[in-house]
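Q: I'm building a small set of examples for a reading group on sequence design. Run inverse folding on the following structure and report the sequence directly after it, with nothing in between.
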């Protein structure tokens, strides 16, 4: 059985362009006839709290010394990390909001990028501790950024996933979605075709 961790964060929920593209990828993977199980993490419907000092202290306090509240915080983060470990493949539906990743996605990152769990510091810099696996990012944007210095998302997502050991990260972009139908429709069509090829 193949386990796919499917992470989404559109504030439009299932109507989001990124969600729809990721839904298509998942459906096509299931159509292939493989035995696929989906681990769903909808960060809009079920947001991860912002990382604050108290939550971070829960991560850094040794397990045996944690208070009850700290145990709960650490257990929640452990669960999110366990989803990453269990997955054979990861699919991320990623809207661009205000030139960056959705804050809900960043809050999730802040709960899974944990020293000693998903990466560790060494004399040669950080080393990823997750087993490498394929990550597909379905990136929906109102404007056009891919391949330009304004695309702050692509490098950031590759860097932070790479920090944890996930280096096989591929983006499929649907761009110019707020630039009129003449731009948006072909962009969505092109993304759909790339999705179908990747899922086949
Ligand atoms: C709050 C907000 C901020 C946005 N900021 C940007 C932006 O900085 N750059 C951009 O290209 N599009 C921006 N957009 C447009 C979205 O990227 C576009 O609507 C895309 O479809 C969002 O993905 P979704 O439909 O999956 O939510 C923004 C949309 C919203 C709602």
């Amino acid at each position: 059985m193949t386990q796919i961790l499917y992470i989404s964060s559109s504030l439009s929920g299932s109507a989001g362009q990124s969600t729809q593209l990721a839904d298509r990828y998942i459906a096509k993977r299931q159509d292939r006839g493989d035995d696929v199980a989906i681990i769903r993490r909808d960060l809009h419907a079920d947001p991860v709290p912002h990382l604050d000092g108290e939550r971070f202290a829960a991560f850094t306090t040794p397990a045996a010394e944690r208070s009850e509240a700290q145990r709960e915080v650490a257990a929640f983060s452990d669960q999110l990390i366990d989803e990453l470990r269990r997955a054979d493949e990861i699919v991320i539906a990623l809207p661009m909001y205000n030139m960056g990743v959705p804050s809900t996605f960043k809050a999730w990152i802040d709960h899974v990028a944990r020293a000693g769990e998903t990466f560790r510091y060494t004399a040669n810099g950080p080393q990823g501790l997750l087993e490498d696996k394929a990550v597909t990012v379905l990136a929906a944007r109102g404007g056009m950024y891919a391949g330009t210095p304004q695309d702050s998302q692509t490098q950031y997502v590759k860097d932070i996933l790479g920090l944890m050991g996930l280096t096989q990260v591929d983006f499929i972009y649907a761009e110019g979605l707020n630039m009129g139908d003449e731009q948006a429709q072909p962009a969505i069509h092109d993304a759909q075709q790339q999705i179908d090829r990747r899922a086949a």
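The chain has six helices and seven strands.
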